[in-house]
């Protein structure tokens, strides 16, 4: 395992080094660059849980990824907190000093004081710019016995982090990102700290997860414009200074095909380009690229990306670090040239902006087309339906122009619930910043009994529970009535399972904290279970036809994205001419008829080929 990790880290370190040499993936203006404070766990458990010095390699990778001119520092902690690399501008000298810290990361200490480490790193040299704390850890809070009775002191430190330091860090604008290197880590703690402060958290179980976690954090701290890759194609508009393609390899080595048909590879790169080829990725920087549609061959991996250097950039306003289940998200975007908004008359022809929320699998949860208000584009993204880590994507498309911004976000419940077994109550906390005791009423149903929650603080409630049999798992339905801007809505927490660890359950269901939203007095449509039927296998030629028909909507959508800017104007002209409108309508009806005829013939063949079932009693 150690040898395999060393191989993985070899190519990761090579990737990081090449990113710094090119310095094109991190194109944020230096004056707007946040400050990064890296906090590395050197407690004794790291010797067992991180034998390959994964944390040290992670530090080296992150140090290499940070853009020159940013400010950063490194802290270590175990029983004591140290600052071996104080805050300073990131340059070659700083990078050399950071890499020289590797031997100190194996100078293990016996205990783990996460609270002191986060606090000391956060308060060191306060600055105006935003601070990002990157916590690398593998263990739980474990304080020395001379500080008090255990486990009370450990529990008190954990509570202080969540109830005092976390909210204080959020108020100060300090963002905590956490990477956990072991299943023994207090994952609930690091996830909660990240959520409280608007950061990201991840458990690293394999090299792919590590790479994804780092790329997500880099995207959050140093956002850049990308040219979206659609069907292995991307569009480069005129006037770009250059683009950088980070292409993770598929089965074949990637190649780039320029708009004029010229083919480029690692052996034959474009003139003036830098092409670095490794076993798992290719990194290509192309200066002054040829405008038009480029193509990537070789089936690049999902994390592949094209970042662009251009005076024209896509800007977003007010995008929160966390989205909330049951609440729409306001979106505002515009194009800027050298930092100044582009006027309406100078915008690309047929410009269209969309906003989407993608879940961890890449599927679109919700989407909205932004409407234009002079040079700005605004809209409201429909409320997300699934909790967890997601990607917020804003895409701009026009004639010969495509650009997108990707921002990793946390999707959280508007109200969280926790069962306090010792005190026979359920504790509820408002996660959404606008919810409080004045506009939110919480109640629940438990085995037919109605329960009311009482406010115990501005944004916290408690719900007393009756005497329960602790040998039974019992579902509790929780609801919140929320009034905002004169509108009342009901947030439903599907089920909270009380005593979930016992074997016997009453109506046991998923206790996911995800909230759904419905309007008052809105009747929900009944859910009908699909009737179980046995599908008769189709002949292979028919199966191929069915698969092709099923693929038609996706392929048509991709082709429409490419041709829409060029077809929009002719279609608008046709819509104004009654004679052309009738021709378009007739063509549409004919196309639909042909598709329906093909589907009817397939269904007819399937019905004839099925096995007839004799009537019986």
TrEMBL record:
Matching CDD domains: vWFA
Residue stretches making up the VWFA domain: 35-221
Pfam families the record matches: VWA_2
Transmembrane regions: 582-603
Keyword entries, A-Z: Membrane, Signal, Transmembrane, Transmembrane helix
Signal peptide (residue range): 1-27
UniProt cross-references to InterPro entries, sorted A to Z: VWF_A, vWFA_dom_sf
Record's protein name: VWA domain-containing protein
Species for this entry: Billgrantia zhangzhouensis
């Amino acid at each position: 395992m150690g040898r395999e990790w060393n191989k993985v880290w070899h190519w990761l370190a090579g990737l990081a080094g090449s990113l710094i040499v090119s310095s094109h993936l991190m194109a944020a203006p230096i004056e707007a660059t946040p400050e990064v404070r890296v906090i590395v766990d050197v407690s004794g458990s790291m010797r067992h849980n991180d034998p390959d010095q994964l944390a040290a390699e992670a530090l080296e990778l992150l140090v290499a990824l940070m853009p020159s001119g940013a400010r950063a520092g490194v802290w270590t902690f175990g029983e004591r907190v140290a600052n071996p690399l104080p805050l300073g501008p990131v340059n070659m000298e700083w990078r050399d000093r950071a890499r020289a810290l590797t031997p100190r990361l194996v100078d293990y200490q016996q205990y783990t004081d996460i609270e002191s480490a986060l606090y000391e790193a956060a308060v060191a040299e306060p600055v105006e710019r935003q601070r990002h704390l990157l916590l690398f850890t593998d263990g739980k809070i474990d304080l020395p016995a001379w500080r008090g009775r255990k486990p009370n002191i450990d529990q008190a430190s954990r509570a202080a982090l969540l109830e005092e330091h976390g909210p204080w860090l959020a108020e100060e604008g300090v963002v905590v990102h956490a990477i956990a290197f072991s299943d023994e880590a207090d994952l609930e703690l690091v996830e909660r700290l990240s959520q409280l402060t608007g950061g990201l958290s991840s458990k690293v179980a394999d090299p792919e997860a590590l790479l994804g976690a780092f790329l997500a954090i880099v995207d959050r701290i140093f956002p850049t414009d990308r040219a979206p890759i659609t069907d292995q194609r991307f569009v480069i508009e005129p006037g770009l200074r250059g683009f950088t393609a980070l292409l993770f390899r598929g089965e074949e080595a990637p190649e780039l095909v320029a708009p004029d048909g010229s083919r480029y590879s690692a052996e034959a790169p474009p003139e003036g380009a830098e092409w670095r080829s490794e076993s798992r990725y290719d990194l290509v920087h192309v200066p002054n690229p040829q405008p038009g549609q480029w193509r990537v061959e070789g089936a690049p991996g999902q994390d592949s990306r094209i970042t662009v250097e251009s005076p024209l950039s896509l800007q977003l306003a007010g995008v929160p670090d966390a989205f909330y289940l049951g609440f729409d998200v306001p979106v505002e975007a515009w194009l800027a040239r050298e930092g100044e908004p582009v006027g309406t008359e100078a915008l690309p022809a047929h410009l269209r902006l969309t906003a989407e929320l993608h879940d961890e699998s890449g599927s679109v949860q919700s989407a909205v087309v932004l409407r234009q208000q002079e040079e700005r584009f605004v809209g409201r993204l429909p409320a997300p339906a699934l909790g967890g880590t997601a990607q917020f994507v804003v895409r701009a498309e026009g004639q010969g122009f495509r650009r997108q911004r990707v921002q990793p976000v946390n999707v959280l419940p508007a109200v969280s619930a926790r069962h306090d077994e010792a005190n026979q109550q359920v504790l509820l906390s408002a996660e959404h910043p606008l919810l409080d005791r004045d506009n939110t009423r919480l109640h629940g149903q438990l085995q037919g009994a109605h329960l009311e929650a009482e406010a115990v603080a501005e944004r916290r409630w408690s719900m007393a529970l009756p005497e329960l049999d602790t040998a039974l798992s019992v579902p509790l339905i929780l609801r919140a009535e929320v009034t905002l801007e004169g509108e009342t809505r009901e947030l439903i927490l599907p089920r909270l399972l009380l005593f979930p660890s016992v074997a016997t359950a009453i109506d046991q269901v998923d206790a996911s904290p995800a909230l759904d939203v419905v309007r008052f007095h809105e009747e929900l449509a009944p859910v009908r279970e699909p009737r179980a039927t046995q599908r008769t296998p189709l002949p292979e030629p028919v199966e191929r036809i069915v698969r092709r028909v099923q693929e038609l909507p996706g392929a048509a959508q991709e082709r429409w994205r490419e041709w829409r800017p060029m077809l929009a104007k002719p279609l608008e002209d046709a819509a104004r001419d009654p004679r052309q409108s009738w021709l378009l309508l007739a063509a549409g009806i004919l196309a639909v008829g042909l598709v329906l005829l093909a589907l009817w013939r397939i269904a007819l063949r399937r019905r004839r080929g099925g096995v007839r079932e004799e009537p019986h009693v």
